[in-house]
Amino acid sequence: MEKYIVNSKMPGFKSVDIESTDLKIPGDVLVVIADEELNDKLALYYIRLKEILARGLRVVLIDIGGKCTSFFPLASLLICYNAYDIYMIQSMDILTASYMERLLNREPSYDEVESFVDSKAVNISELDTLIIGIESLVNENNPDGFKTFLSQHMPSLENMVTTIDYLKKQAELANSKELVNKLTSLKSEVTSLEEKVAEFRERCNKLRDEKFVLNQTLNDNKKEIDTLRAQAKEFEEASTSTTTIKSYNEIKTSLINCKAQVILYFKEVSYIPYMNTFIKILPELIRIKKDANNNTRKVKTIIYDSNTEIFNCYKDLIIANSEYYVNNKDNCVSKLARFVATEPNPIILTDILQHEPAYDVVIVYDRMYKQTDIVSGNNVYKFHVMNSLSDLQNSKELLKINSTQRIFTRPEVNIDTPFKLARIPDYSVPGTTPARKMTSYNKLKTPDGEGLINKLFDEIRLNQVLARK
């Protein structure tokens, strides 16, 4: 397909004269720029465009600035050939190559261009006056009268071509199927709109139902929040007295402004050897893991144990009850790397989880030996600690343990889990450096030969968290 342009130049178009013999191939494009230069060339352009349109070329007529008196007659001619690429622009500056490309990609309709010609058409009632007057003066051979007549009716005569072509198009519309096709198209559009209305109604009904469910859920959540607030108030009041908190509700991270990314929750059913050392070394193993920006992890450990008086393993840790926490809140939340809480006061862990700057990992070790969990949520990774197969069998149903893959136990215990803590020889030998201890733990293997620490990090998706930082 060739693209030609008359009366101008344009990248991608071949500039030709209207009388060029190249304008003969069906499907080729001819752009006609209508400006003041065409004012005295109406007859030439009208005849040539009629031939070109008849050959099947696509003609695009563009008026520049509204000063071309030949534009409307030529536009009416295009309309008679169902060619609706007719445009009016203010200046040639607008007509860039990209703008022209957009025009060629359009498929304009008769409705778009009808007003161009309709506004310039002569009142139909004047046609018989013009024709009869001309015929009479010609028969009388009255050149002076003919000259006077032409002078009086010049505005109407100038638009006569436009008017005749306009009437021809209206007759064509009346006698063709174009109006029928337009009616069919409108009916199809109405049907499509009715289908969309039905679809919107269905969506509206669905959204209304969803809103009802959400409102119901919101009301339930509000009731639960009110209950938790009441319990929190009770705990706060209890924390200032000598009363020890023994019962508690689990903290749901979805109901607080939880900032911590990973919560590693160990629930001890029965003690296993080396678990205390593992919990002590685990934060250091996490801290040395670098994120994408080469930053170390911020880790916090809190151990819940109400029997600290006979448990000698906490001799180097702060032992905090509710009263101590109230008086030393900043120390417990932001300064201590780990401490022991002797009461399950939810305020303590809630403050830590909501702390800014946020902790990357919070380790919670639960020795309360209660059925109720201390914390739960989508970012909480829960593990059970148990010393024997019988411990699993006795607690499985009560604690709703559906899988053994998150159980820490001894190597000798017949539980199918990757997390079996073996003894590390020479771990407590005097002079063993912290770096060597971490290396020893990094060398621990699962029963399948995989690195135990790396397996744990994969299980809590710590590596994914590091990749996002």
Describe this structure in words.
This protein has 469 residues and is an alpha/beta fold. Helix content is 45%, strand content 14%. The chain has 17 helices and 15 strands. The strands form three sheets. The protein has an eight-stranded parallel β-sheet with strand order 9-10-8-11-7-13-14-15, sandwiched between helices. It has a five-stranded parallel β-sheet with strand order 2-1-3-4-5, with helices on one face. It has a two-stranded parallel sheet with strand order 6-12. It is elongated and about 135 Å long.
Largest sheet: 8 strands, parallel
Strand order of the largest sheet: 9-10-8-11-7-13-14-15
By oligomeric state, this entry counts as single chain
Low-confidence stretches: 118-125
The count of strands amounts to 15
Q: Strand fraction band?
A: 5-15%
* End-to-end C-alpha gap: 55 Å
Question: Structural class given helices, strands, pairing?
Answer: alpha/beta
As a percent range, the share of helical residues equals 40-55%
**What is the gyration radius calculated from CA atoms?**
45 Å
- Rounded mean pLDDT score: 83
Shape: elongated
The number of distinct helices, counting runs of at least 4 residues, comes to 17
